[in-house]
UniProtKB/TrEMBL annotation:
GO terms for molecular function: structural constituent of myelin sheath. This is CKLF-like MARVEL transmembrane domain containing 8b. InterPro entries: MARVEL-CKLF_proteins. One of its GO terms (cellular component) is membrane. The lineage of its organism: Eukaryota, Metazoa, Chordata, Craniata, Vertebrata. It comes from Amphiprion percula (Orange clownfish). One of its GO terms (biological process) is myelination. The chain crosses the membrane at residues 39-62, 74-104, 124-146. Keywords: Membrane, Transmembrane, Transmembrane helix.
Length: 156
């Protein structure tokens, strides 16, 4: 059969060897990077939206009631409004997860201070529910932020 000239054979073999070594590395890097970026944006973006909605519901539901006599609900309002306004980062989400967990527990325990069936009771119970949902969203977003940070560190 036909064979390329010897000088071309060396070049073809060198390029072929280089491509065989390089392409798997590039595809692994791109495949991992693209899939992780897609995972981050596909899951974290909706979580960020849910954080805004649930967090807003927590402070709106309490803010529409007579919560001032209960200092625990003042704490709930402080955490809910503070983290609703602050910007996004890994440390922010981790601290928000912890504080929102405490806030959700305080909010749930404060529901007993209201009379069942009254406006305050219903709003406070709903607020406690949304505080727990917000906590779960912050925890999920913390995990995804950590994962994104870890991947970016490995690529450096």
């Amino acid at each position: 059969g036909w064979r390329p000239p010897p000088s071309t054979d060396l070049t073809v073999n060198t390029v072929d060897t280089h491509l065989r070594e390089t392409l798997p590395k590039i595809s692994r890097l791109l495949g991992r990077g693209l899939s992780d970026i897609m995972i981050y944006w596909n899951f974290n973006l909706p979580l960020l939206l849910l954080l805004q909605v649930f967090g807003m519901l927590v402070w709106i539901l309490i803010g529409g009631t007579d919560y001032f006599p209960l200092s625990a609900l003042c704490w709930v309002m402080f955490v809910a409004i503070l983290f609703w306004i602050l910007t996004v980062s890994l440390c922010f989400h981790c601290s928000a997860t912890v504080l929102y967990l405490v806030t959700a527990a305080v909010d749930a325990l404060s529901v007993n201070q209201a009379t069942r069936g009254r406006h305050n009771y219903n709003c406070w119970a709903a607020s406690a529910f949304f505080a727990f949902l917000t906590t779960l969203c912050y925890a999920g977003s913390s995990y995804l932020s950590y994962r994104g940070w870890k991947i970016s560190r490995e690529e450096q």
